[in-house]
Design goal:
Layout (H helix, E strand, L loop, with lengths): L20 H11 L4 E6 L5 H10 L2 H9 L2 E9 L3 H8 L5 H7 L10 H20 L3 E6 L11 H17 L5 H10 L3 H23 L2 H10 L5 E7 L1 H4 L3 H4 L6 H7 L4 E7 L1 H13 L10 E4 L4 E3 L5 E4 L21 H4 L2
Parallel strand pairs: 1-4, 1-5, 2-3, 2-4, 5-6
Antiparallel strand pairs: 6-7, 7-8
Length: 340
Amino acid sequence: MEKYNLASGYSSYEPQPGTSPGLTALVDKATRNGGHLFFGEPHGDGMIVKQYELLANNPEAFKIAAKNGVKHLALEFPESLQHYADDFVAGKITRAEFRKSLDDFGTPWAEGPALDAFKENMTRTVENAKDAGMKVHLSDVTWRSMQDFTTPEAQALEQKIDKEYDEKKPDKTRQQFLEEYVANMPQEERDSLMRGLKARQEEMQMRRYDDSEQYSYLRKRIPIGEGIMGVVGFKHLDNNLDAKTGIKTRGIDDYLEEEGGRVTSIEVHTARTHGYFQEEYQLNRTAKNDPPDYTIIVDQKRILDRAGNDAGKLDQAPENPVQPPRRDLISQATPQALTM
């Protein structure tokens, strides 16, 4: 993360105004004839701000999606905030009241002015859906149960270190003491600790990226046959852990496809997050088992197709209508392209 300058928190952001005709054209093509469309974004490098700014700046994308039969916007936000979205769409609370409700949403991915920018962009995104006649669904029903990434071994060690810290009262912070303690552990013990934490992390990720509960929540609110446009973390869509773990994960796109729906997936990155996750997947021995149909690189204003080839510009409407990717050509794509 340090290599790609993603290690530090994202605290400031300069707004990027302007519409994206290329995005609107892509949404048009993806949602014709009742298709679903899901954007997947990495949360780092301010993408939680930039993804929603992209949607906020393009109300025409919502209008054309609604014209094509998309009646719902599904967002990866805590279901506990759903009543605010319902009341805002129904006109029971004001725009300012809805924006204020986002103060209850905690995120490690933005702070300070960047967090304020995210709240404004999120509000404008919901406003665009509202103005287009869409219903809005905050469909993250598993986030609270996915907070514990520790192991019994790590918990016991932390208690031991806490006790030793309280007894010695060293001239350093508790976190500094903990980090030094772990760094000075025998190599075998430290490796065992890290292997356990890594395995626990992958277990929790597998649970997190299977969207059965999200799908059930949406199906209680949305009839089959009505189009959905959604935004989720991109790893909910790419099934990247399947080959490594030997277990088939099913993201929200998989569940919708299993019922006969057509889903177009679009990853939205900066150039940094795009490069970072290509390398991360190689280091972790994972791969995109379900590559996105398109990838948007927001800071370069590029649109890539499923094979990683240029497919248009964000700031330009295509001369010819955007064509959906041909699935039969995917096997011909290079391994490098398939990791994008």
